[in-house]
Amino acid sequence: MNVGNIERYRTGDGWRYRVRWSLPNGTRRSKSFRLRKDADAYLRQIEADRMRGLVNDPRGADESLHDYSQRWLDMRRAHLAPRTVELYVSQLNKWILPEFGQLKLGRVTTEQVRAWHGSVGSKASPITAAKCYRLLRTILGTAEEDGLIPRNPCRIKGAGHEKSTERPLLSAAHVAQIAEEIDGRYRALVLVAAWGGLRRGELLALRRRNVNELHGTVTVEGQAQHVAGQGRIVRRTKSDAGLRTVTLPAPVMAELVAHISEYSDADPDAWVFTAEKGGPAREADLSAEWRRAVKACGLTGVRLHDLRHFAGTTAAQLGATTRELQSRLGHGTARAAMIALVA
């Protein structure tokens, strides 16, 4: 199969050899070499790939994974949540680029990916390995779609699946104990998380106007996150499913109303949960106080997010349907709602 040709031409440094070839769509490509044998080998590789049905632009495979991953992220930055961008940058800088950054796209092999995946699992955790593998697979998948590499080397069965350890299941007594121990300005937050199922960011983004005492509800409109280099950011919920109104048990609503009277301002746009020195509650302060309170209660390995699992499990035990759980927890799919009960 003749897909290209080699032409000889003179330069100021002597003779060079240019490989010219065509992609199936008619686009012409070329690449120059100092030695004829290198040009011959390059053209033979193009012809061999074409015979195997691997159609790609060999020039793209010469770009380093570091450079391509930066371009890949820049093209998507405007469409990703700030926290997601922060996560991707962290995964790239800590786990992916140290191993593959200097390699050309076309030089990354499945064998290397398999060894790296196992190493990350040993050094960090299987969950971290799965998350980083999925990011690498997505980046190289785009390179394959763009015709820069003939095949994505991330082809390891099951490598992207997370096998989360079973989370501790809190009881109503545990929730009450934590709410009693934690700083008073976070007591209502613990109770709303446990009986309303709101996420941390959703709780920290609540404003006074989101609380309807008459109907006993809170309306979730957004989420607050701390992003490195940007500080606190309040944005719309991750999906339309996150926009919801949640009914709270009467005792929990009474706690929330009392909290607002003591810690929040009268302005409808005032933050519900505030910092000791004013302004919205800080994620770092909440996390530190949560860890202290949980330790004081004699509990280990319990995260704030476990209150959300408690909310889902309790609602299910009280007879909530999968659709009702999905709506209450703000999940886009029934599968996600069910995972929240056991994750």
UniProtKB/TrEMBL annotation:
Chain segments annotated as coiled-coil in the UniProt record: none
Molecular functions (GO terms): DNA binding
Claim: DNA-binding is one of the keywords in the record: yes
Kinase as UniProt keyword: no
One Pfam family recorded for the sequence: Phage_int_SAM_3
CDD domains membership: INT_ICEBs1_C_like
GO biological process: DNA integration; DNA recombination
Domain Tyr recombinase, residue spans: 165-343
Domain called Core-binding (CB): residue spans: 63-144
Signal peptide start-end: none
Key words of the record: DNA integration, DNA recombination, DNA-binding
Family indicated by similarity: Belongs to the 'phage' integrase family.
Annotated protein name in UniProt: Unannotated protein
